[in-house]
Write a structure and sequence with these properties.
By secondary structure, the protein is of the alpha+beta class. It has eight helices and 13 strands. The protein has one domain: Glutamine Phosphoribosylpyrophosphate, subunit 1, domain 1 (4-Layer Sandwich). The protein has a seven-stranded antiparallel beta sheet with strand order 3-2-4-1-10-9-11, with no helix packed on it. The protein has a six-stranded antiparallel beta sheet with strand order 5-6-7-8-12-13, covered by helices on one side.
Length: 268
């Protein structure tokens, strides 16, 4: 299991400010003693990783996981290990321009792993580096994007991505039930650097959209704000502990955020 956060902002230089604005709400779900954390983001057209696969003493905060990152889009994950271990199994995962993080467990993973691997195209199967169910789930989604001819597209139609998620969930649930396992949480987030998508299936997920003047700028002595910022954040915060301006994502709902930070939703 674990916790995830995905953010898109209008100002790459103010990503950290967005997290500080939402710090109180976003950090409520974080616990002490995580097994690792990681972040993925985009700079100068490059997809970059920052991973800490070791156990973490004390309280983790999202702003710390993404400390110093300047990016319009970022995905971060705090890990409580259930399968796998080490840097290869620390989320988020990357494939070409795609970043992905997942919260939950793939039901019957040990029994369904080989059949799922065999269903993947060779180039995707070879890209899997670790042993986690989350990385395999990521590549299953990519396989359906590949089937649709959209794996390398920088502007994937929302309907195409939702269809890939729907097909992935259907395939995973079928394999799990065939081995007598009840399907579990498949809450996830993925981005290609220009669009952000998130699915709630089982584990909690919340959405917040804001346009604000960064508080630390407006409060700075003698300082003047450099303009407002807009941001959209989805995070696995508890359903019963969110501020009033947070929207609970419904189970089976897909959140789609375009490069202009317009938010739409769809259903699996």
């Amino acid at each position: 299991m674990g916790l995830l956060l995905a953010c898109m902002t209008s100002r790459a230089d103010l990503l950290g400010e967005a997290l500080l604005e939402e710090r109180e709400a976003l950090n409520r779900a974080l616990v002490k003693g995580a097994d690792g954390c990681g972040a993925g983001f985009y700079q100068a057209g490059e997809v970059l990783h920052r991973k800490r696969p070791r156990p973490i003493d004390g309280q983790v905060e999202w702003a710390g996981v993404l400390d110093g990152v300047r990016s319009h889009v970022a995905i971060a994950h705090v890990r409580t290990a259930t399968t796998g271990g080490g840097a290869e199994d620390t989320q988020p995962f990357r494939m070409r321009q795609w970043l992905f993080a997942h919260v939950g467990e793939l039901a019957g993973f040990e029994a369904v792993r080989e059949p799922l691997l065999e269903s993947l195209p060779d180039f995707l199967r070879r890209n899997i580096r670790g042993n986690s169910d989350s990385e395999l789930l990521f590549h299953v989604v990519l396989s359906f994007l590949h089937d649709a001819g959209q794996l390398d597209s920088m502007d994937v139609a929302d309907a195409t991505l939702v269809s890939a998620l729907r097909s992935s969930v259907t395939l995973l649930d079928r394999h799990s039930r065939e081995v007598g396992a009840e399907p579990k949480s498949l809450t996830l987030a993925l981005t290609n650097g220009r669009q952000l998508f998130a699915l709630r299936r089982g584990s909690p997920l919340a959405l917040v959209e804001q346009e604000r003047v960064p508080q630390r700028q407006s409060d700075a002595p003698g300082g003047t704000p450099t303009g407002s910022m807009r941001y959209v954040i989805v995070a696995s915060t508890p359903d019963d502990d969110n501020p009033s301006d947070y929207r609970t994502v419904r189970d089976g709902e897909v959140v789609c955020v375009d490069r202009d930070l317009n938010v739409t939703t769809d259903r699996l």
